[in-house]
Amino acid sequence: MKKTVFQTCLLFSLLFCTVNAITAASFSGKAGAKLEGTSNPEYDDIEPILKVQGFYSAQFDFSNQMTLRSEFSVQTADIIETGLAEDTEAVFRIDEISVTKHFLLGSFANYFSLFFGTYEPIGSDIFLRRLFGIEEIDSAITQSWLGLKGSTVLPFFGAGGSYIVKADAVPIAGGIYIYANHRNTNKYELNLDTRFAGVFNNFCFDIAGGFGAPLKSSDDTNADESFLIVDELFLHGGTEFFIGNKYSGGLFGEIGIQDLRVTRSNGANFDYSSDNLYLLIEPRFVDEYYKLNLSFFSFPKKTVENLFFVDNALGIDANIFNDLFHSKELNYTFGSHFTLSWDRTSIKHLDTLIRNDTDSSEFEYPDAKVSPYIIVDGVSSKFQAMVQIITSELSNDWQHSVRVDLSYQKYL
Fold first, then answer.
1. CB 276 within 8 A of CB 260
2. Residue 226: per-residue pLDDT
3. I need a labelling partner for 259 at 20 to 30 A (CA). Which of 174, 232, 328, 380 fits?
4. pLDDT score recorded for residue 160
5. pLDDT 10s digits, 188-203
6. Regions of the chain where pLDDT drops below 50
């Protein structure tokens, strides 16, 4: 109940500000939809499934003093099963509603924000793009082809606020985030994070870390002398960096720890597992006619559920593409992902693979798939299409080895 009242009050406050100021703002935005077609794995024969995702994002700027942002998304169930003309179950989500007040104080730019949803997370370059105006650097395997954000190392998720200071003389920024959510328990969790970022020639980084504290009252512990009690913390942190540039290549990386539980038990007791680790190392190579991004990854299973180039937690991906073809106002990208992955979360599992130790209980052959795609990027829109083939399953389960994704986005 407390969670609902608190988040509802904040949401209506942000909407009230939007309604009262919207007529005096400059507007930019984006809307789009993605179709996902495959075959239902519960049937032996081909039984097509078609799911639709849509999103809408908007930004209003008021004389360089205040910015209002919002993003909403919806995802349907299988529209073939229910019928195109019938009611279909769908999940609606508020991805972000935020208001940011910016002002100068001496030689520093200051940004005070209130937000609801997921706000400028680590693992997405949206913070660096908004604050420093850099070009997109995110990895292709973590993008969603929908909306502003893909997967995240550290999501600033919930309801709260942030205060960011950006230096004028040096391209660096830092700040603090305070927000509430129920990410790890059903208790009210208070989160505190600090953030530091910088953009230089051929190098940029974004790093943050902090903790979430589930707050328990005296009723939860029968401790009459205590009002609020914290007996466990969930530590989290992460960084995103890129050394180099898109024209000559470089090294991209995302490293983080998610929800590392610390409890009071004769001192600090860390509850760590490989599921807490988020790791992506991606060397990028540029040739005269093609580009190659070689990705080595180990993701939490929750992250894998939101990806469509990657099906398992541990693996390698090679993205080979050419983005040099232009026609009038259109830019074309042709390429393909080649992915090997294992349903394991421990990097130690790689040892048996390197040694090819087939007698080990840890050994298993990887899932292999190839994903050719095309991207057509115009001045006011973007079209993306991909056919994904699970080559390791073609011989014994070809009916469920093909998937098609189509995405269209319109810049408003």
1. yes
2. 57
3. 174
4. 96
5. 899 999 999 999 999 9
6. 1-3, 5, 223
